[in-house]
Write a structure and sequence with these properties.
heterotrimer, A alpha+beta (380), B alpha+beta (163), C alpha+beta (291), A: 380 residues, alpha+beta, Aldehyde Oxidoreductase, domain 4, 7-stranded mixed beta sheet, 11 helices, 23% helix, C: 291 residues, Uridine Diphospho-n-acetylenolpyruvylglucosamine Reductase, domain 2, Uridine Diphospho-n-acetylenolpyruvylglucosamine Reductase, domain 3, Enolase-like, domain 1, 3 domains, 12 helices, globular
């Protein structure tokens, strides 16, 4: 009898993971475990209004607090970073039917959700940074918040992004085949309205990173809790006018993400800019309070769909409407509007349809950003 | 530092340690920053998730809900102190064999909680294990593999006790 | 979520602690188990200028059982009380209530007195103290005074304790021989704050009818509430489905519960009726008819 080969011996074997003993004995290396010489700590001041104009920011008392190294607000962010045009790196901004707003890493003229970052404090410890946050005075002029898709579609709802004119950020159809023929042939048409509620990823480890800009060679080393080190490498640099080869991203142990940590966050941009400005490593570790309000959410979609079916159980075609509540800021480089297309594209599953036709409407609301969550097309 | 500090002495994983910290600094932060023991994790800072669980004088506690200065004179055990002489404790070994975690962020809290639980009793039903672990949250596993790990560790400790 | 700055005091005696509370008054919070206060500090919802840590102070009594009842020092850890033979024998309702508080790690630090003094309207121990007509003993600069549970809880997180007073002891009357008890709670998950809870103690007389029933509710108002109308329905009645059902209905009718993220007022009213019924059924079932 021939000896089983190496490959055959693995099939059916219980294979333990190589990283487990390290993690089990407390030798994991998540981003908050990393300490760099000269490292400072950051905290964000976040909006307590869902929708408001910022009419004044006074950070003078915060800057004067012992232990505070710097405070950046909307006034400084314009000169420290490039405006964010989400999706530019992958050409998403060229997508027909998609509007692309421009904004900065910190709120400048408006806040658009509870948790919108308004200022960044860099200090000797997170404790002192939070003390400084308490000392920043922001004047807000509240605006009526847009709380759901229905309200967003009403012409009278206040636009979340003034420059877009209204709250429809994307409108495009996806169609293939001959849907009209499919429905003409159908023995019956069955329909449903499916509403999926808002979800949140909530990994046990929130977001976090250490930005370490070395002014000598002009390089940025970015330690991140991320699923996408290459996206950070490609996209962070241009925000600070650095070439990708000047940026190095390290992702060590990551305490869960589930789709949350695939984009370049506004916090990432601001953190890197702050490190560049102070010339020292700056660490930002999101706390649970920030995480729940500001990190990212998902899946708030409504599908009004009809299926053309035959009496012998064949699915001929699907048509309908998808409305997606996108929150305020689009993710970069994957705006939520792109996920809407993914939902519809995944809808047929393994079925060969004669036709599919779905109109997609994506609306902005005064909520946290819609980001990916574990198969963001799952609603389909 | 902007605030007055205090000197605190305690025993950590069997070794005498001393730190100088602000009174408002939580035990979790003192363990992670001043003692450099980063195995204990901070998940919620309000006592809900259990990722920060350590033993203080033998009892599992939420280190995010204690001030470091409150631990003066105590015996603290963190996840780094559970293995002995480079050999993993049966709880750690069982978690490894049972694939009891994925990202590992909640794991130190579960290790400490299970370690303390099984130190006191090893005859446990699955329902009892679930009840005793209910103060530790995990977002990756769905808990079954963790429960399996604890039950497997309980079996091993029972067998070891009989030898 | 880091605590704001405060001046930390570690008095070595109860008298020293009281002197500090007197000196700093409203600017000062006492720290017992910390399981309620430290989260508030982490959220910066509490910003005391002074924190008086009671954990180092000698002078708090322990657990004492005697003919006049069960006495539990305010700084006794919840877990210790839960496992104490004196408490198990002298107040089984308290043992059951303690096991509903959070999780073991919370109860390893949380104290019996701390939970009562914190007076969360949805907490178990204030409701149990009210159900049992406990007496709360406070010490201030002028000495000790006793406040009945009925007068102790005055509003949201608000008790009869003055800023210069510290809760020292919880005195529970002797457990009525043969009394049945139960605490029923609904929460979204095991260990969460109760959406509503009902604690019941039922004593039967020689004829098997209810000699005395006491029912207290948590989560239905800004403080724990005695369901006195429900108690009156039961007095002298047979503790069967009819009287219990009527009592439960009375309990629900007599409250004006809040609506919040976890449930509407209507939901709470419904839930209270169910919980009171279950608590009374269970308590009546446990109660023994005296010989």
């Amino acid at each position: 009898m021939a000896q089983a080969t190496g490959a055959a011996r693995q099939v059916g074997a219980s294979v333990r993971r190589a990283e487990d003993p390290r993690i089990l004995t407390g030798a994991g290396r998540y981003v908050d475990d990393i300490v760099l010489p000269g490292m400072l700590h950051a905290a964000f001041l976040r909006s307590t209004y869902a929708h408001a104009r910022i009419t004044g920011v006074d950070a003078s008392a915060a800057r004067a607090l012992p232990g505070v190294v710097a405070v950046y607000t909307g006034d400084e962010v314009r000169s420290m970073t490039q405006p964010i045009v989400p999706g530019t790196a992958v050409g998403m901004h060229l997508m027909p039917g998609l509007k692309t707003p421009t904004f900065f890493a910190l709120a400048t003229d408006k806040v658009r959700f509870v948790g919108d970052p308004v200022a960044l404090v860099v200090a000797e410890s997170r404790y002192v940074a939070e003390d400084a946050i308490d000392l920043i005075d922001v004047e807000y002029d509240p605006l009526p918040p847009v709380v759901d898709a229905q309200q967003a579609l009403e012409g009278s709802s206040a636009p979340v992004f003034d420059e877009l004119g209204d709250n429809v950020i994307a409108r495009y159809p996806i169609a293939f085949g001959d849907t009209d023929a499919a429905f003409a042939e159908a023995d019956r048409v069955v329909g449903a309205t499916l509403a999926v509620h808002r979800h949140q990823m909530v990994p046990m480890e929130g977001r976090g990173a250490i930005a370490s800009y070395d002014p000598g060679p002009g390089t940025l080393t970015y330690y991140a809790s991320t699923q996408s080190p290459h996206i950070l490498k490609l996209l962070l640099g241009p925000q600070l006018q650095l070439a990708p080869e000047q940026v190095r991203v390290l992702a060590g142990d990551v305490g869960g993400a589930f789709g949350l940590k695939t984009t370049v966050g506004r916090e990432d941009v601001m953190l890197a800019a702050a490190s560049k400005a102070v010339g020292r490593p700056v660490k930002w570790i999101e706390d649970r309070s920030e995480h729940l309000s500001s990190s990212g959410q998902a899946r708030e979609e409504t599908l009004d769909i009809e299926a053309a079916v035959t009496d012998d159980g064949r699915l001929l075609g699907i048509r309908g409407r998808l409305t997606m509540d996108h929150g305020a800021y689009p993710g970069d480089p994957f705006p939520a509007s792109a996920f809407a297309g993914a939902i519809v594209s995944m809808m047929p599953g393994p079925t060969r349809l004669r036709g599919l036709s779905c109109d997609i409407t994506v609306v902005t609301t005064n909520k946290c950003s819609y980001l990916a969550y574990r198969g963001p097309w799952a609603s389909g | 530092m902007s605030e007055p500090t205090m000197r605190v002495r305690f025993s950590v994983n069997g070794a005498a340690r001393e730190v100088t910290v602000e009174a408002r600094k939580t035990l979790a932060d003192v363990i992670r920053e001043d003692l450099g023991l980063t195995g204990t994790h901070v998940g919620c800072e309000h006592g809900v998730c259990g990722a920060c669980t350590v033993l203080v004088d033998g009892d599992p506690v939420r280190s995010c809900l204690m001030l470091g200065v409150q631990a003066g004179g105590s015996d603290i055990v963190t996840v780094e102190g559970v293995a002995g002489d480079g050999v993993m404790h049966p709880v750690q070994q069982a978690f490894w064999d049972s694939h009891s975690f994925q990202c590992g962020f909640c794991t130190p809290g579960f290790v400490i909680t299970a370690y303390a639980l099984l130190r006191d009793r090893t005859e446990l039903s699955e329902a009892e294990v679930r009840a005793e672990l209910s103060g530790n949250l995990c977002r990756c596993t769905g808990y079954q593999s963790i429960v399996n790990g604890v039950l497997a560790a309980a079996d091993r400790l029972q067998d070891a006790g009989k030898e | 979520m880091k605590p704001p700055p405060f001046e930390y005091h570690a008095p070595e005696s109860l008298d020293e602690a009281v002197a500090l509370l007197a000196a700093h008054g409203d600017e000062c919070r006492p720290l017992a188990g910390g399981q309620s206060l430290v989260p508030l500090l982490n959220f910066r919802l509490a910003r005391p200028a002074h924190l008086v840590d009671l954990n180092w102070a000698d002078g708090f009594p322990g657990i004492e059982a005697g003919p006049s009842g069960l006495s539990i020092g305010a700084m006794v850890r919840q877990r210790r009380a839960e496992r104490s033979p004196e408490v198990q024998a002298g107040c089984p309702l308290l043992v059951d209530a303690l096991s509903l508080i959070g999780h073991p790690a919370i109860r390893n630090r949380g104290t019996v007195g701390g939970s009562i003094a914190h007076a969360d309207p949805a907490a178990e121990l204030p409701a149990v103290a009210l159900a049992l007509d406990a007496e709360l003993v406070a010490r201030g600069p002028q000495g000790e005074r006793t406040v009945g549970a009925g007068d102790f809880f005055v509003g949201h997180y608000s008790t009869a304790l003055q800023p210069d007073e510290c809760l020292v002891r919880v005195d529970l009357p002797p457990w009525p021989p043969g009394a049945g008890w139960s605490i029923q709670e609904t929460a979204r998950r095991h260990g969460d704050f109760a959406i509503a809870a009902a604690a019941a103690v039922v004593e039967l007389d020689g004829a098997g009818t209810v000699a005395r029933a006491r029912v207290a509710l948590a989560g239905v108002a800004d403080r724990p509430v005695r369901a006195t109308a429900a108690e009156e329905v039961l007095a002298g009645a047979v503790a069967g489905p009819e009287a219990i059902g009527a009592a439960a209905e009375q309990a629900a009718v007599g409250i004006d519960p809040p609506s919040d993220l976890h449930g509407s007022a209507a939901y709470r009213r419904h839930v209270v009726q169910v919980l009171v019924r279950r608590a009374l059924e269970s308590a009546a079932h446990r109660a023994e008819v005296p010989a």
